[in-house]
Amino acid sequence: MNTKEALQLLKEKGYKYTEKREHMIEYFVSENRYRSAKDLLENMEPSYDGISFDTIYRNLHLFVQLDILETTELNGEKQFRLKCAHSHHHHFICKTCGVTKEIHHCPMEQISEELQQFMIEDHKFEIYGFCPACK
């Protein structure tokens, strides 16, 4: 997803365009990694004097609800990233910088065999470690 597509989705769902929302989306497009609400706030403060943590969180959760962003838990903190174009995917996530690499294998094929009598609704598979730059 790019900035234009995300803003179009907001409009289609009845949410208004604001410069702050565009800035937030552009931040995640340019970062292409998991980032925290604090990271986003620090990025926006020079441009938007007095921007609140509430504004950041409210919009981040709206973007997750609209499938613009996806989330994970990293080092005890919720992290956000632009939603990948592929509907079903998994990631390697660097524990230091949040950089992600898409994993093209899904372990559910093997796991489903072990859980044949169970009804699986959803799953999440992430691998954590350190990228080449951070190791």
Automatic annotation (TrEMBL):
It is found in: Cytoplasm. The keyword DNA-binding applies. Pfam families: FUR (PF01475). The keyword DNA-binding applies. Its main location: cytoplasm. It comes from the Bacteria. Keywords: Cytoplasm, DNA-binding, Repressor, Transcription, Transcription regulation, Zinc. Belongs to the Fur family. PANTHER family: FERRIC UPTAKE REGULATION PROTEIN, ZINC UPTAKE REGULATION PROTEIN. This is Fur family transcriptional regulator. It comes from Gracilibacillus marinus.
